[in-house]
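Repro:
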Amino acid sequence: MTSALLPHLPLLLTLAAALGLMLWLIAAPWQQRRRRAALRAQVFPQAWRRILRRRLPLLQRLPADLQLRLKQEMQVFLAEKPIIGCAGLEVTDEMRVTIAAQACLPLLGARRGYYPQLKQVLLYPGAFMVDRLHQAPGLAEVQMEQRRALAGESWVQGQVLLSWQDVLAGAMDPDDGRNVVIHEFAHQLDQAKGYANGAPALPSKAAYRRWSTVMQNEFDALRQRLAWGEAGLIDAYGATDPAEFFAVTSELFFERPGELASAHPELYGQLSSYYKLNPLSWH
């Protein structure tokens, strides 16, 4: 390097670093697409097929093209998302495959990434304990800490927590409208913007307005029915807040679509439009 360039060395180094970063930003998405295409093209292991047949009867209802796509999506999911055992649990292929199959169901209709904010799944043997702050009854200034046993939880920070006992129960009964994996991964879709409010990413302002109108009306109607002591298809937990309403109704959408469409046609229509799927045709 000539002495004439020495005064410009910091600027040259900065420009070189910026160029390197720009090239990486251009190349990284291409490399990711190429890697994922290669994963989807791999032969789906026979051992995994046996797990699906044994543990997930819902998947047998899917048309052949969606069954194939599900297997492809699972291969990418399992390559990118570590599933970590907690409380002494040793994670097996049966656990990984059972979780991945249910987590990928909401991805079948539209390309929306593989839960890009999700860093890992934490798997417990059964219900796990969490500490939560609650307002003391009648004392707005007093916060009380409570311990609760949960079957699942989704964190904005990039973790999904699951109870294997509940994962398995949800997989084995595809008609009860309860599926902790679908529930928590619906939260992940909702939380992609950094917080959960029951409104996942939609394509337009008009779509948001329609979603808001239908979901708010259904949410308010659920709360009113519960206040009157009336039973209904949608679980009472859905009345907790709009985020839980979206997750609870997503469980019904995949597991009891006929009943949901009959009792709540506009709600079913919004979920079908969002997921780009029509589970009615699977049953």
